[in-house]
Amino acid sequence: MKVLVATEKPFAKKAVDGIRAIVEQAGMTLSLLEKYTQKEELLVAVADADALIVRSDKVTREVIQAAPRLRIVVRAGAGYDNLDLAACSERQVVAMNTPGQNSNAVAELAIGMMIFMARNQFQPGTGTELRGKTLGVHAYGNVGRLVAGLAKGFGMEIYAYDPFIPAPVMQSEGIHVAATLEDLYRRSDYLSLHIPANKETTGSIGQALLSLMPKGACLINTARKEVINEPELEAILAQRTDLKYATDVAPGNMDALKAQFDARVFATTKKMGAETQEANINAGLAAARQIVGYLQKGDKTFCLNK
Ligand code: 3PG
To answer: Which residue of 116, 158, 279, 286 could cross-link 98, Cys pair, CB 3.0 to 4.6 Å?
Structure first.
């Protein structure tokens, strides 16, 4: 059996070594496609793969069709908006993610971005502190929860909004529960986004919510670019000269934002939330174990297309 690791953005070497050890110990072979630039390279590489590990790499219907032996694809990470689940299901390919495995890395980056923005992107001049400010956590999943825990250490007051998490769970962790999404945005000096990109959330963060934020507020997006209504973000940044935006998932209009708003906006050059050795090892090895577990024992934990 062949396990293909196809990562346009490669794992750290230690993670690849760990994946290889798990795969080979299970009597399978590992094949690597790293830093590829053309989808055709992926289409060729999957032709004889029984299992596939990816990161944000797009596993489209075309990819599934090019992989006649494929039985399982694991997205080593949390967000699975890059997997065509319907195409996987039609071919009875099991799709999984590895929830929680890279969350700490993303959470630390979100906090780092808050400090970076509070200190004027490390340019000379007087900044502000996080202590005493209010943090709004939009979605209290694995990353949101870790961001909240870290922010508590900075002396921030934390509010969260998540219709999928019972209020007592958040309250038991010292989090104030926002009554509504609008209430969350109205309170947040910093708003950290942790919603997935899907039909409901695409373009959902725009003028209506951002205009509610307090004076000098900053939106931090380590989630997905698709959740932002980009024209509305540009419009509100023009209207509200106090608002700031920092993101790990650069919007399509980033050049225009930078030209107009300069130090009030920031985007990493390439998504780096999960780019730590630890996160690569945690997510990569989990993916390899999940593949072995499924192919050898039929274990479908973390299956996304039930
Ligand atoms: C995730 O959904 O797990 C993160 O966005 C990390 O994505 P990456 O593996 O492309 O860095």
So the answer is: 286
State the Cα–Cα distance between residues 130 and 220, nearest whole angstrom. 14
d(Cα 246, Cα 121) in Å, to the nearest integer? 10
What are the strands of the beta sheet with 157-161, ordered from one edge? 176-177, 157-161, 134-138, 190-193, 218-221, 244-247, 265-267
> Please, what CATH class does the domain formed by 103-267 belong to?
alpha beta
Rounded Cα distance between 117 and 115, Å, is 5
For the chain, give every residue range classified as CATH 3.40.50.720: 2-101+275-297, 103-267
Q: Say if domain 2-101+275-297 classifies as CATH 3.40.50.720.
A: yes
Query: How do residues 206-250 score in pLDDT, each as one tens digit?
Result: 999 999 999 999 999 999 999 999 999 999 999 999 999 999 999
- Does residue 306 carry a pLDDT above 80? no
- Give the pTM: 0.97
> Which protein residue has the closest C-alpha to ligand 1 atom 3?
77
**Ligand 1 site-directed mutation target among 5, 34, 56, most atoms within 8 Å of CB:** 56
Q: What is the pLDDT of residues 75-109, one digit of tens each?
A: 999 999 999 999 999 999 999 999 999 999 999 99
